[in-house]
Each structure stands twice: as C-alpha cells, then as structure tokens.
Amino acid sequence: MFEQVSGLINEHTELQNELADPALHADAARAKRVNRRYAELSKIKSAHEHWVQLGDDLEAARELAKEDDAFAEEVPLLETQLAEAQEKVRRLLIPRDPDDARDVILEIKGGEGGAESALFGADLLRMYMHYAESKGWKTEILEKDESDLGGYKNVQVAIKANASDPSQGVWAHLKYEGGVHRVQRVPVTESQGRIHTSTTGVLVYPEPDEAEEVEISQNDLKIDVYRSSGPGGQSVNTTDSAVRITHLPTGIVVAMQNEKSQLQNREAGMRVLRARLLARLAEEAAAEASAHRSSQIRTMDRSERIRTYNFPENRIADHRTGYKAYNLDQVMNGSMEPIIESCIRMDEEERLKALGQ
C-alpha cells in the first residue's frame, strides 16, 4: 500500500501548481474539487513525512545507543511513535468514498408508532442540529410536516460544512445515519406508564455541488402547485405556493411547502431532487461493483434497523458496530462523536479487508 505514496505526493505537487494558476479559479466548481483533493493529499503528505522522520530518528538513536546509554532509553518510545505514525499513513491511504467531502440533505420520516414516532423524529432532528453545531456546520430546514403534538411526520434539513477543511465534508460523518432508528420509552400519550417501541426512518443524501453534476431535463419533470397545509390539515397559506416535483424517468417525487414563495419551494425541491438522483446513481454504481459495495458499512437498504435508543436505561446501541453506552441523554444533546467514530472504524476495517491488507 505504501508504494502509492510517491505517486500521491507527485499529484499533490501538480495540484499545488494548479491552485497557483489564476485561470483555475475562473471555474468555481473545478477549483472546489481541486482544493478538496489537495487538502486530502496534504494530510497524506504530512503524515508520510512524519513517519519518515521518525524512522530516521529511530535509526540514529539505535546507532548512538551503542556508545551512549541515554540514547538507548529513547528507542522504545520512538518505536511506539513510528508504529503509530505508520498506522496513520496506512489508514489515510484507504480508498475513500468519493462523496466524503460533500454536504448532505438529511430526511427524517415517521415510522411505526404514529404520534410517538413523529415526536422521536423531532428529538432526532434536535440531536443532529446540536451535533452539526458542535462541528461548526450550518443547517437549513428545507421542508417540515409537523404533527398535532409538535413532532415531525417528515422533515428535511440541509447540512453544510465549514470551509476550514475541504477534504472532510458532512457526508463523511453522517452517511452512516441512514436506516431505521428504534426508540424504547414511555410515550407522552401513554396513561399506564408502559414502555412502547417505535421507529423513525432517516435518509441521508450527498448534495451535489453544482446543478450540472446531475443533469435534469425540464421535459422529464412534472410540476404541480397547490395550497400548503399545516397540522391537522388546516390551511397555512391562501396562495398556491406549495410545489410537487415528479421526476418522470425515475418516479422520484419531492414536495415542498415550507416557504411562502412558490419559487423558493421549487428551488428547495430541485435541491432535494438532485441529491436523491445523485444517491440513486451511487447506488446503481455500487450494485455493479460488488467488491466496492461489500466494503461499505453503510447499507443502501433503508429498512435496516441500525440503532436503538432506550430511554429507561439511558442506553444507546448501534447494531452494526456493537457500540453500546449509557449516556443517551448526552447523545440526544449532540454528543454523537463516539458512535460515528465506531462506524468510521468499522468501515475502514471492511475496506482494508476488501483490499487484502
């Protein structure tokens, strides 16, 4: 695997020269992709240089230890540091998901449990919003369908990373959230104090950078407008501002009524449609490449039960990685990093197995 480094460092130099060319920045989309790749390769270059330096230091310490015992004491520490540095380089060289640097559109949908499912959907939204805030990401509610008790039957939120690290986008962290989330607790509607089990679905789509990444012909769209409505069916708008977009070739339907402007709802709907089409293309490509598909911890089967939230025991459990902790209250306030890290680690191990490493 380490034989790749030389070629990647050469690519890093080429990208550095390209970024210095003013002509590149005339194409914003191209400049963004180059900047992302440069940031990714910069991490590999830096980690590799540190590994090489430690190797040189260890060799020198071993040589000097023959004459001075003081240097012999440094050898075990340098050996440990060298092994850690080598492991870091090895993991950085694992083939990455090409969508890792993207922003996402995350959708939370009610499942089994009716009103309780919708209420848990609101809890999940709050959890993701707090997590995004802790990462310095920006969030934007695109669409929401509230239930009578204040939960969400359906809510869609766009999550955008900051620009401090172009190589690490939202998708790299939240792509593992897609699936069925199970909650066990006493619902507010339960008069006997019995624990109920409900489910809420989460879908996560990488958002295209530019409209041209996903070609959509206007002839392939059926666009309907209608009056928006709120919880219980009451009208919340007296004009036909709600928009329903149907992509005829795939049958994908996106409905938006969150904004009072028909134009704004249409723009939000097109963002979601492009993201869903991009995800569909990725699924088709993954299905064709079975080796690549098997290296993904993230399943395309949206019916998979991925996690259980047990409120009476304050327990959170991820069924894919085996992660379990008794700090559910903290997780629901956005402390998701250990859970997501367990998914990332398993994903990396699966990728390494696929490579025969």
From TrEMBL:
<dbReference type="GO" id="GO:0005737">
    <property type="term" value="C:cytoplasm"/>
</dbReference>
<protein>
    <recommendedName>
        <fullName>Peptide chain release factor 1</fullName>
    </recommendedName>
</protein>
<dbReference type="InterPro" id="IPR005139">
    <property type="entry name" value="PCRF"/>
</dbReference>
<dbReference type="Pfam" id="PF00472">
    <property type="entry name" value="RF-1"/>
</dbReference>
<dbReference type="InterPro" id="IPR004373">
    <property type="entry name" value="RF-1"/>
</dbReference>
<feature type="domain" description="Prokaryotic-type class I peptide chain release factors">
    <location>
        <begin position="227"/>
        <end position="243"/>
    </location>
</feature>
<dbReference type="Pfam" id="PF03462">
    <property type="entry name" value="PCRF"/>
</dbReference>
<dbReference type="InterPro" id="IPR045853">
    <property type="entry name" value="Pep_chain_release_fac_I_sf"/>
</dbReference>
<comment type="similarity">
    <text>Belongs to the prokaryotic/mitochondrial release factor family.</text>
</comment>
<dbReference type="GO" id="GO:0016149">
    <property type="term" value="F:translation release factor activity, codon specific"/>
</dbReference>
<dbReference type="InterPro" id="IPR050057">
    <property type="entry name" value="Prokaryotic/Mito_RF"/>
</dbReference>
<feature type="modified residue" description="N5-methylglutamine">
    <location>
        <position position="234"/>
    </location>
</feature>
<keyword id="KW-0488">Methylation</keyword>
<comment type="function">
    <text>Peptide chain release factor 1 directs the termination of translation in response to the peptide chain termination codons UAG and UAA.</text>
</comment>
<keyword id="KW-0963">Cytoplasm</keyword>
<dbReference type="InterPro" id="IPR000352">
    <property type="entry name" value="Pep_chain_release_fac_I"/>
</dbReference>
<keyword id="KW-0648">Protein biosynthesis</keyword>
